[in-house]
From TrEMBL:
Reaction catalyzed: a quinone + NADH + H(+) = a quinol + NAD(+)
Taxonomic source organism: Edaphobacter dinghuensis
Protein name as it appears in the record: NADH:ubiquinone reductase (non-electrogenic)
Segment forming the signal sequence: none
Enzyme kind, highest EC tier: oxidoreductase
UniProt key word Protein biosynthesis: no
Length: 459
């Protein structure tokens, strides 16, 4: 831990930040400019730009395009130390955090921003069969499975003249499910169309199973309809009110119905990081900590819960667990700590009681390589879809990527992929086993042969 006093001999305050995601990193970057000693702890050595993970999962971008070492992001601030470690216990009465390696960090102020993780609704055994998308490792595993399915089909077709239908099933029709579906469809129909000699990748089928009555449930009705239209246009099938009751190697069950799947992906549910419960404060049903208007849990003005881990309501609705609120919460916590420290040092502490206010700029989700839906709230209000929404999505995501090198590399990669229909990160790494490959029914892939029934799509 950096040790020191401010110029006047007053002991410097120590701030511990757990989590180097959108919230924690934004807090650290703002606090780093102040005379404070800051420790940022993350169990990974990198910050991940999660909104672009699906592009790594579907081979358009490489992991290094969307992730950057936290240590290098904060390298120019000598008052910030970065620890690759994991918070495992909080001793709130002693203002101390315990890390997995046994290290103990004392703090004057604590920011906990450890985000969220997948929820399999009590069926954790499904995780191996239907990976979710949260980390770079998840993305490369999804990439491995999707690409491997085509390779195995090619091999089997060459050897036996038939192969299982290439059915990709995505459980969950939120933004991640929709983005994955669009990208798999693009891979199959556009990027790989002339790469195989025995199979026709464009015969692959992509199905979204959504448990509620609509996909993109948080979007207005007109944008939901546009999203359905755009997905249908690229051949993605959608089934709503479809409650998955089981996930098995090679298939999923919706009630009594078996749906074959060479690859099953999970985009259905999230829950807060377990640290929410570990802190010992009241949590909501997803495990998010209930905080007040200053992002403090009850009775602890020195603790800030930020990002996906925080449950705070505004205008009668919970602030959503997406990137913008997480960044704004991180910045708010930094500002309030700065004001509290200043007040301690004798300033009038003007503004220190200002509450957190989420400034909603809108939401966007892409659908394949040239369509999207955008519910824009700022700088004007509007519902956009199709190509203009996709262009907006592109610009916003380049802008918010951390680091100039990443922005340049992503821009170059997107332009290349868009113009040439070639994706450059189509690598299969790791095992060559695909769970359930041998369990999927084999079907002759002849032009007259209908693909496996994926159920009736909602049009
Ligand atoms: C696939 C995907 C797509 C998304 N797309 C969008 C989008 O298009 N637009 C949008 O606005 N939002 C999107 N989101 C949501 C957005 O990424 C999250 O809301 C945001 O990352 C939350 O920020 P956070 O700082 O709370 O947590 P995170 O960014 O998840 O960061 C949490 C950090 O805490 C670390 N950590 C966890 N536990 C511990 C521990 N015990 N000790 C130490 N460190 C720990 C993790 O390693 C991680 O670095 C998407 C999310 C995903 C998964």
């Amino acid at each position: 831990m950096v040790d020191g006093t401010s110029g006047g001999g007053v002991e410097r305050k120590r701030v511990v930040i757990i989590g180097g995601g959108f919230a924690g990193l934004n807090a650290a970057l703002d606090l780093a400019k102040l005379p404070l000693d800051i420790s940022l702890v993350d169990r990974r050595n990198h910050h991940t730009f999660q909104p672009l993970l699906y592009q790594v999962a579907l081979a358009v971008l490489s992991p290094a395009d969307i992730a950057q070492p936290i240590r290098s992001i904060l390298s120019k601030y000598p008052n910030v130390e970065v620890l690759m470690d994991e918070a495992v216990a909080f001793h709130l009465d002693q203002q101390r955090v315990e890390l997995k390696t046994g290290a103990q960090l004392e703090y004057d102020y604590l920011i906990v921003a450890t985000g969220s993780t997948h929820s399999y609704f009590g069926h954790d055994e499904w995780a191996k069969l239907a990976p979710g998308l949260k980390t770079v490792e998840d993305a490369t595993e999804i990439r491995r499975r999707v690409l491997l399915a085509f390779e195995l089909a090619e091999r089997q077709m060459q050897e036996t003249g038939s192969h299982p239908s290439l059915n990709f099933v995505i459980i969950g029709g939120g933004p991640t499910g929709v983005e994955l579906a669009g990208a798999i469809s693009d891979i199959a129909k556009l990027y790989m169309s002339n790469n195989f000699r025995h199979i026709d990748p464009s015969q692959a089928q992509v199905l979204i199973l959504e448990g509620s009555p609509n996909i993109l449930g948080m979007y207005p009705d007109d944008l939901q309809a546009k999203a359905r239209e755009q997905l249908n246009a690229i051949g993605v099938k959608i089934r709503v009110n479809a409650h998955v009751s089981d996930v098995q190697p090679g298939y999923v069950m919706v009630g009594e119905e078996r749906i074959n799947a060479v690859v099953t992906l999970w985009a259905a549910g999230v829950q807060a990081s377990p640290l929410g419960k570990l802190l010992g404060f009241e949590t909501d049903r997803k495990g998010c900590v209930l905080v007040d208007q200053h992002l403090n849990p009850p009775g602890h003005p020195e603790i800030f819960i930020c990002g996906d881990l925080a449950h705070i309501e505004q205008d009668g609705k919970q602030v959503p667990g997406v990137a913008q609120p997480a960044m704004q919460m991180g910045k708010y916590a930094a500002k309030r700590i700065a004001r509290l420290v200043a007040a301690d040092l004798g300033s009038d502490g003007t503004g220190k009681n200002e509450p957190f206010h989420y400034f909603d700029k809108g939401d966007m989700a892409t659908i394949g390589r040239k369509a999207a839906v955008a519910n824009i709230q700022w700088p004007f209000k509007g519902h956009w879809s199709g190509f203009p929404a996709w262009m907006t999505w592109l610009v916003v995501h380049i802008f918010f990527l951390i680091g100039f090198r990443n922005r340049l590399s992503v821009f170059r990669q997107w332009a290349w992929t868009y113009v040439t229909f070639k994706d450059s990160a189509r690598l299969i790494t790791g095992s060559q086993e695909l769970p359930g490959w041998n369990a999927v029914e084999t079907q002759q892939l002849h032009p007259d042969t209908a693909p496996l029934d994926l159920g009736s799509p909602k049009t």
